Amino acid sequence: MPARKPNERISRFLSLILRHAPDTIGLTLDRNGWADVAELLDKASQHGTPLTLETLREVVAGNDKQRFAFSEDGARIRASQGHSLRSVDLALAPSIPPRVLYHGTASRFITAIRQSGLRPGARQHVHLSADRDTATRVGARHGVPVVLEIRAADLHAQGQVFYQSDNGVWLTGAVPVRFIDFPGK
C-alpha cells in the first residue's frame, strides 16, 4: 500500500477528532461542533500529532471535499458534516432540495439498501450529492460504485427535512426504498 501524503494523514486525523472522537485527544467541541483552533493544535501535539496553524490552514483549504471550515474570525474549526456525535448540532437551516439527489455507494451494499432503504448508520444524516459525478467518486471509495437516484422533492413533499452543509453536501434522515431509483430499474 502506498504511503499517504502528510496532508491526507492530517485530514484523516481531523475527521476522526472533529467528527467522531474529540475525546481521543481531550478536545472539547461546542454544541455546534466548533473546536478552538489553539486548543486543537495544543492537544494534537500533546497526543503525538504535531500540527501547526499553517499546516491546518493548508489542509482545510486543500481538502477537495471541503470537509472542514474555519469560523469567520479563524479562531474555531469544525467538520462540515459527517458527525457521529449526537451532541453536535450544526445549526443548519432546512433547505428545499432539488428534484433529484444522488447517493454513491458500493455494489456490495445494494441488496441491503433494496431491503431497508438508506440509513444514517453511525452518522446523524444520510449524505447525498447534487451531481452524479460526485456520487460516483463517493461510491468508488468503498468498492465498485453504484449511483442511486433519490427522489428528493417527493420525499420532501412527504415532510422529510433536508439540509445543505457549507460544502454543498445534502443531509437528511433515513430514505425509504420507495424514494430510491436503482440503476437498471
Automatic annotation (TrEMBL):
Q: Does the keyword Repressor apply?
A: no
- InterPro entries, A to Z: Ptrans_KptA/Tpt1 (IPR002745), RNA_2'-PTrans_C (IPR042081), RNA_2'-PTrans_KptA (IPR022928), RNA_2'-PTrans_N (IPR042080)
What the entry lists under Pfam families is as follows: PTS_2-RNA
- Tell me which UniProt keywords the record has, alphabetically: NAD, Transferase
Q: What is its EC number?
A: 2.7.1.-
Top-level EC class as recorded in UniProt: transferase
A single GO BP term for this record reads:
tRNA splicing, via endonucleolytic cleavage and ligation
Single GO MF descriptor = tRNA 2'-phosphotransferase activity
**Family classification:** Belongs to the KptA/TPT1 family.
Q: What does this protein do?
A: Removes the 2'-phosphate from RNA via an intermediate in which the phosphate is ADP-ribosylated by NAD followed by a presumed transesterification to release the RNA and generate ADP-ribose 1''-2''-cyclic phosphate (APPR>P). May function as an ADP-ribosylase.
Its protein name is Probable RNA 2'-phosphotransferase
Record gene name: kptA
